[in-house]
Amino acid sequence: MTTDTLPHKPETHAHRVHKIPVAVLGATGSVGQRFVQLLEHHPWFRLHEVVASDRSAGRSYADAADWRLDTLLPDLAGELTVKALGDSLESRLLFSGLDSSVAGEAEDLYADRGCVVVSNSRNHRMGADVPLLIPEINSDHTAAIEQQQKRRGGRGYIVTNPNCSTVGLAMAIAPIDQKWGLAKVQVTTMQAISGAGYAGVASYAILDNVIPYISGEEEKIETEPQKILGRWENGRFIDAPFRTSAQTNRVATIDGHLMTISFSLRRAEGSSAPGVEEIRAAIESFEGEPQRLGLPSAPLHPLHYVSDSDRPQPRLDRDREHGMAVSIGRLRPCPILDFRMVALVHNTIRGAAGAALLNAELLEAKGLL
Ligand code: NAP
């Protein structure tokens, strides 16, 4: 990705003179590096601190991070000294790309100290007072923050973004669920190797191969969409009523999770089923709070319908709207459920760091930072 494809639109969003200083927890990892990249030209936020394990602490970021992205490591980031997890930080807004073995405790620690933690990790996603946000779908779930602050006894709190495949799935089905109500969803994913972190899958294991198992992934995809598409009501989250069956596969693409989705609709008595064209129109006109607020990382259109019969494809479609839009194609009737389609999400941008940035922009726009 070149710098001119980064998801910020400075021409439509005044750069602030005083940007908000932020820290990245897990800054040396795959998601952490993407945060550092996306923050370089961010109009509202400024990278101020980087945090990683004791292996990296005390070293310059340039030395500690094995930089793997196809833009140059930003000079200012490279000069920062990596802090150790648990160190006191000057920034109040923290982005977390921490390994899940440490994320749960560390994110709680910083939130209890009064920080706002915007996390990618799975640990707190299903928390009873933790918003699992996709701002186009459930920006109103930020109402849970007040309850969480009370529990912690301070100003700090955690918000999370979903699993990288869940983001693509939930966004693809959101306009359909909102308009007609989903009953059943069946999804099969083909997930890129960047989703496993840099050291995640050995080249000898994945080249010339497909691995039909990703630890813990199916459970996340089968539960997170219901929370996202559900409601915050009377102080608790109420899940959307549809059921999901997921099968996940690791394939030899670098970035971009592709998935095939079949779904059936809840049929209200006497109502007629929509046709393919109506569903396609709902997908193409879908938008939410980030578009209305004009948030810097928001795609103009969160969902793009791609008409060609062999699309979307990871290499050709993952960078649509700077990696922040989900591409959908091949919508057609299904002989078992009602309809089927293909969706694609950029897993480390819309599925991780870009999603967290958009969440933080929403919090700032709502006066919650
Ligand atoms: P990764 O490349 O393995 O990076 C993990 C980061 O955590 C590194 O900065 C590492 O620091 C740090 N870390 C590991 N052990 C630590 C410890 N004991 N104390 C302090 N820091 C420690 O992983 P990743 O792929 O970026 O994923 C990060 C998180 O985001 C995970 O929870 C993952 O599930 C989630 N996520 C990933 C994706 C994706 O597409 N990759 C998408 C959505 C969500 P050192 O370099 O110092 O070891």
Key features of this structure:
369 residues; alpha/beta; Rossmann fold; Dihydrodipicolinate Reductase, domain 2; 2 domains; six-stranded parallel β-sheet; globular; binds NADP nicotinamide-adenine-dinucleotide phosphate
Account of the 3D structure:
With 369 residues, the protein is α/β, with parallel strands linked by helices. It has 2 domains: 166 residues, 3-Layer(aba) Sandwich (Rossmann fold); 184 residues, Dihydrodipicolinate Reductase, domain 2 (2-Layer Sandwich). It is 31% helix and 21% strand. It has 13 helices and 14 strands. The strands form 3 sheets. Strands 3-2-1-4-5-6 form a 6-stranded parallel β-sheet, sandwiched between helices. It has a 6-stranded mixed β-sheet with strand order 10-7-11-14-13-12. A two-stranded antiparallel ribbon has the order 8-9. Strand 13 and strand 14 form a beta hairpin. Helix 1 crosses helix 13 and helix 7 runs parallel beside helix 9. The longest helix is centred in the middle third of the chain and has 17 residues. The structure holds NADP nicotinamide-adenine-dinucleotide phosphate (NAP).
Number of strands: 14
Q: What Rg is obtained from the alpha carbons, in whole angstroms?
A: 20 Å
Question: Hey, roughly how much beta strand do the residues contain?
Answer: 15-25%
Note the gap between the termini: 30 Å
Structural class of the helix and strand makeup?
alpha/beta
Biggest sheet layout: 6 strands, parallel
Order of strands across the widest beta sheet?
A: 3-2-1-4-5-6
Shape summary: globular
